[in-house]
Amino acid sequence: MGPQSRDHERKVMGRIVSINQSRKKGTPKSPVPEGILVAGLGLQNDAHAGPGERQVSLLMVESIHRAADDLSGRQETNTVQLVPGIYAENFTTEGIDLSDLALGDELRVGDTIRLRVTRIGKECHTGCAIYRKVGDCIMPREGIFCEVLEGGPVHTGDSIDRIN
Question: Does pTM top 0.85 for this prediction?
């Protein structure tokens, strides 16, 4: 392989382990095997889809695992399973450090989808349904939000990598 070929290789940083959607805001999302991202709106058929800076939310599965370890000794989590979608994120990722991203960074999902980071963390209103159910909400600390620049189909297992 020549030097030019190496320059054009795409280095995959991570993957989508779960695509999650809900019909109602403020509730955990349910995993779906695939979805459609619509430019300027977000995940089709999701309660949070719409214009603005929070079109799509992302959270690392590594964060969910860490939260499960942190909460494992608390009684209120004995009946709650911390799984993808529990924190109402649209995409649960693996292998890409979302905390290393900055506002304006762009991501490629699969072959066609392009996202731009618009918000890191969020303000969580007091006593949201997720906080009451889980006992803590990590989205304000570890979640990111993006706008959809280029939409298309997305599937569980699709690659996700930083493009700038």
Answer: yes
